[in-house]
Every structure is written in C-alpha cells, then in structure tokens.
Amino acid sequence: MSFALEHKLNWLYTDVNSYFATIEQQLDKSLRKKAIAIVPLLSDSTCAIAASYEAKLCGIKTGTKIHEAKKLCPELICIESRHKVYVDYHQKIFQEIDKYLQVDHVFSIDEGACRLTGKYCELEEAIKIAQEIKLAIRSNVGDYIGCSIGIASNRYLAKIATNFQKVDGLVVIKPTDLPHKLYSLALTALPGIGQKTYSHLLKNKISTIQELCTENKVSLAKKWGSINGEKIWSLIRGIDLPLEAVKKSTIGHSQVLGPDSRIIAEARNVLLSLILRAASRLRSKALYTNSILLTIDLMNNEVIKFRIRLVPSCDNYSLVHAIMRSWDELVHLKKLSKVRKVGISFNGLSQGLTQLSFDYLPAKHKQENLSKIIDELNSKLGQDIIRQGLLSKQSKSKEVIAFGYVPISNNEKT
Fold it and tell me: Which residues face 148 on adjacent strands?
C-alpha cells in the first residue's frame, strides 16, 4: 500500500532566502557575499533579527546577541533594520509571483503559497512555472533576490521542500518520494515540532521522522498529546487539508463620531477602543485573524477602505500596531483633519494558528498571555478599565519590524 494518500501536486510554496538581509544586499552591492546581521539598533547589547546566508554559516541566527555574533564572526557587518523598505519589496515580490500564479496565502513577509491547477499539477509544468517565477523576481524586482520554491501535494510538504536546498533552491516532493525523502531531516525540521513537542515525542520513543512515519493515526495523536498528531499524520502523507474554517467569518466594530470626536486625535482614540474591544471578542472565541479591513468615512461621504494583512494574530499589541500604523499613514497621505465614522473588521478567521511554521516568537506568546489577563480583569472590573500600555502618536519610537504584519498599500474605494 502506498504511503502517500494524495497523488497530485497541488501547491507551490515560496520562501525568499534570508529576507531582510537579502534586501539590504540587493540595495547595497558592497554587502553582497558578506556576513551581515539586521539589528533593531546599532548596539552590541542587542540581538540579530535576521542574518545573511554568509552569517548563518558562521552560526549566527535570529536571536543571537551581537556581542556573541562578533565573536563567531569578527568581520560581521550590522545593519539597522528598515521596516518600510522590507514591506515595499514584499509587495513587489508577491505582485510579480501573482503574474504567474495566484497567491492564495501570504504566511509572512517572505513566505507565501500558490495553489496549482490544471496543467500546472503536472511535474514538468510545475517546475517550468517555478523557474519562470524565480527568473521574474531576479529580472523585475532584484537581481540578488533568491527565492527557494517547494512543490508538493500540500502546503506543509511544499514548505518543507523549500528547506532542502538553500539558497535559491527548487525542490519537488512527489507523492512517490514519500516517506523516504523526509528521512534525512531532523525531527525538529518538521513544522509543528518545537522543543516542547520534541521532548514529548522522545518520551514516547519517537526520535526520528522514520519512527514518526511508522505510527498509525490514533497512536500518533496519543503520543503527540493532542489532535495535532492526527493532522501531522495526514500532512506527511500529502493529504491537502484545508485551512481551519470557522462559522463566523468576520468580527468587527464601527462607530459614528459625534461632533466632539471627529477631529483626528479624538477619532484615533475611538479607533483604539474599537480595536481592543474587537480583539477581546476574537480571543473569547479562540480565533486568530490574518486580514484586517480599516474603514474611514470622511466628512464629504467618501469612504476609504484599507486592507492590512498580517500573520495570524489575536493579541492587542500586534493588532493595534498593525492598524494604527496604517491609520497614521492614511491620515498623513490624505491630510485628514476630521472624519465622520471609523470601523475595523477582522477577516480570515481561523481556530488556532494557520501558519505552517507553527512557530510563535516567545515575545508574541507573552503578548497573547498579557492580552488574556487584561480580558479577565476587565470582565471582573468593567470594560476598558484596564488597558495595555501603548505608545501615543507623538512618541518618537523606532520603526516596528515587519515580522507580524504586511499592510497592503493600495486603497479600496467604495
């Protein structure tokens, strides 16, 4: 009996290699082929938020303290991060990909997935379109921007395929390649297996992917300790599981502003309150959002709609910063002084994380937990009695790095 339970290529997954560092190397030729680290500020006490391929070969990775990184690589060059530049290139790259295949999912600033249909489900055609995408990115976006592409039966395996060949790789995991093609990988190389899950699997005598593949669905779920074991059992067999669907497709709030609240500073405070209220509802239903629609009704009855994409999130910090950054940009670009109504809606809702990496930065975990504590306190003390500390419009803060969200630059008008 065949190990694979799906016998067609369904997905093409793109991953721009060492994204932040690559963009800096694209813009400055003197940085190419050199070990560089992207940092939030130029200080040895900070840590790398990204590293070039050359730096990674020295053992430097995301989270490495710069003073330690310089010991590993004395010639390391540190570059201060530039959020807007990375977002700009993200949009250019995915617009280029979209000319060849529809981008069905954007999972982060440098990763996305395209569903294959028709002739592109055939091996030769899938490889051909992948090569055309890679060439188009280099020709039309940046000659130094490499993109690893994975092709497989589902998004999960296609993502894994992007990690087989760095940099600028193109790897296909055919149904007939399963499961043996996965055996060369460490167990922790599978998305969904972090340190905690790995330790749990070791206790249950699963230390390799080969051992994982011998388990049946029921036993793997039991040894995994959750229903995720069943999902992984299906995913490594190529089953094209849909992203988790939810009954309620939108959560949002809007408010018509009174005369005293129509000036921009007051409208901004109202919007903040709406975001926190909607975010609390999101968490109460154990939902995450990957798409936000910001709506602004102007005094002349014109309506501005601005779409924001972000990795699946439910914490106050990620949602507030994503929306408020877009609000501030719109206010500046449109020279807004008064508005009549503001509203936000969270779309693309899912139960739990739909990111294929399943990896949440520790800081993001803390933000989720903090938001939940605030929810509990407000439920006892009254709505909005306690709010998380947030920077005001006037704060001279550094730019937020684009890990958590990617705003779409074009406006949608009604």
Answer: 15
pLDDT in tens, 134-153: 999 999 999 999 999 999 99
275 and 139 in a single domain? The answer is: no
Spatial distance between the Cα atoms of 20 and 76, rounded to a whole number of angstroms: 15
How far apart CA 108 and CA 96 sit, in angstroms, is 16
- Give pLDDT tens digits for 323-360: 999 999 999 999 999 999 999 999 888 875 544 433 44
- Global pTM value: 0.66
170 with 184, same domain?
no
Q: How far is CA 248 from the centre of its chain?
A: 22
Boundaries of domain holding 216: 180-235
Percent of the chain at pLDDT > 70 equals 83
Give yes or no for a contact between 326 and 294, defined as CB atoms under 8 angstroms apart: yes
Looking at residue 71, its pLDDT comes to 97
DSSP 413: E
Q: Is the domain of 32 the same as that of 121?
A: yes
| Distance of alpha carbon 287 from alpha carbon 182, whole angstroms | 32
Contact 229, 221 (CB under 8 A): yes
Report in angstroms the alpha-carbon separations of 354 from 87, 167, 186, 269, 350: 21, 26, 23, 31, 7
- Of 155, 175, 195, the domain-final residue: 175
φ, ψ for residue 305, nearest 5 deg: -120, 125
Looking at the fold, whether 32 and 156 belong to one and the same domain comes out as yes
CATH number of the CATH domain containing 307: 3.30.1490.100
CATH code where residue 213 lies = 1.10.150
CA distance linking residue 173 with residue 267, whole number of Å: 51
> What is d(CA 122, CA 8) in angstroms, rounded to the nearest whole number?
8
Buried-exposed string 232-267: b where 16+ CB fall within 10 A, e elsewhere? bbbbbbbbbeeeeeeeeeebbbeeebeeebbeeeeb
Q: What CATH number should be reported for the domain holding residue 116?
A: 3.30.70.270
b or e along 316-346 (b: 16 or more beta carbons within 10 Å of the residue's beta carbon)?
A: bbbbbbbbbbbbeebbeeeebeebbbbbbbb
153 and 194 together in one domain: no
Angstrom distance (rounded) from CA 373 to CA 64: 30
